[in-house]
Amino acid sequence: MADVDVREAPASRLDRIGISPSLAAGFLGLLLFMVGDGVEAGYLAPFLASQHFTHEQVGVVFTVYGITVAISSWLSGALCDQFGPWRVMAAGLGIWAVFEVVLLSLAFPSHTYGLILLAYGLRGFGYPLFAFGFLVWIVTITPAERLSTAAGWFWFGFTGGLPTLGSLVASITIPIIGKYGTFWVSLGLVIIGGLIALFGITDRVGRRRLVPETVRPLQAMISALTIVRVEPKVGIGGIVRLINTTSEYGFLVFMPAFFTQTIGFSLEQWLRLLSVIFIANIVANLVLGWLGDRIGWRTVVTWIGAAGCAVTTLLLYYLPVLFKGDYPVALLAGALYGITLAGFVPLSALMPMLTPNQKGASMSILNLGAGLSTAAGPLIVVLFRGPFGISGIMWIFAVLYVISFILARMLNLPQQMTKGASAGH
User: Fold this and answer.
1) What's the CA gap between 238 and 223, in Å, rounded?
2) Quick one: pLDDT at residue 45?
3) Proportion of the chain above pLDDT 70, given as a percent
4) Residue-level pLDDT at 269
């Protein structure tokens, strides 16, 4: 678009750290929104179990939620092209709030499994539209040479809330107001964060459609799928992104029980361990986003992300088992996992540059991979926990990271592009 360059001069302090000043409020709003979304991450599974639902039923709830998240994640890019990121983010906030109210006022109090499944599943359409709509906005107006750093700030806010500070909030509020009251706290945080972003962002580009009027909605949807045929590397990148957080969402299904029942930690200790994992992750998001702009996006993804996670996933299981009850060892294993998980951050910069004239479509595939991981992780747990146990699941995740290493090596870009984009060695 002709006015894509409507942004402050790069001499500003925010520009120097990789944030477009016109989007600054969006990063704060994203953080608060995802804090609210992440409050339940560490205790929703045991909460549902306490309502006398089976492990399989809980797994199905997470899987259905993951499916709606995946669909919404894929739609986010195409919808941003058609309606602009601002409207997509507003829709995400509205969906999240409405179905959370249904969940808290009707589904949970009635202990009706079908209603819980319906309300929680439909709520899954909410956060991807809000968060990934904002990511498309970032990609649209940020120069390529600072794109990985900006993506690092996005994931800083995203994982800073889900589940880092969200779990920390839960560990503080649950002893005071209980698990049910804590759900209402999460709703308040989501609404506050959403409103800060929607009314604090000053950039005008994202308030209108990102493609010409001649491109119709159906064309945009089709483009968000056919892009993988036009540029197969986009599809490969989507698979790598899928593998990226599959283990994370799988862990949220069974790790609470593993650490509290098998290892012997309290629920509060588990929630703080989860916070440590993602505190390390959010710091690494910034560092590795910055590093990707300097040594190469693909280099960081393959060696720190894929190879690193293959090792740390196993450490997260075996170190607590070998040093049972040793909380500092478990914290160390968690921190290492969180750091390597951030190694995939430069994918958010690499993917749109594979098809610079169809960034929205490429981001749809990237977001689809992110969304599918929320379903794939719990589904792996549901399918393989019985026959292989927790150790078997950890090995499955480790092997997936080895596969992602092989795939990520294929994501090279033309050498004439910017340093961050071309340094894929």
Assistant:
1) 15
2) 85
3) 91
4) 87
For the chain, give me the number of helices (H) and strands (E)?
A: 19, 0
Closest CA to 298 of 396, 415, 398: 415
pTM of the shown model:
0.80
Distance in angstroms (rounded) separating the CA atoms of residues 422 and 349: 11
Q: Which of 258, 241, 270, 236 is nearest to 381 (CA)?
A: 258
163 prior amide bond cis, ω within 30 = yes
Distance between CA atoms of residues 171 and 38, nearest Å? 12
Q: Do 25 and 196 meet the contact criterion of CB atoms below 8 Å apart?
A: yes
| Residue 416: pLDDT band with limits 50, 70, 90 | very low
Identify which has the larger pLDDT, 304 or 155. 304
What's the whole-number mean pLDDT along residues 220-243?
83
Rounded CA Rg of the chain: 20
**C-beta separation of 159 from 282 below 8 A:** yes
pLDDT surpasses 50 at 247: yes
At residue 6 the predicted structure's pLDDT band, cuts being 50, 70 and 90, is: very low
290, 345 contact by CB (below 8 A): no
Instruction: Please list, residue by residue across 121-158, b when 16 or more beta carbons sit within 10 angstroms of its beta carbon and e when fewer do.
Output: bbbbbbbbbbbbbbbbbbbbbbebbbbbbbbbbbbbbb
Give how far the C-alpha of residue 159 lies from the chain's centroid of Cα atoms, to the nearest Å. Answer: 7
Task: List the domains of the chain with CATH numbers.
Answer: 17-422 (1.20.1250.20)
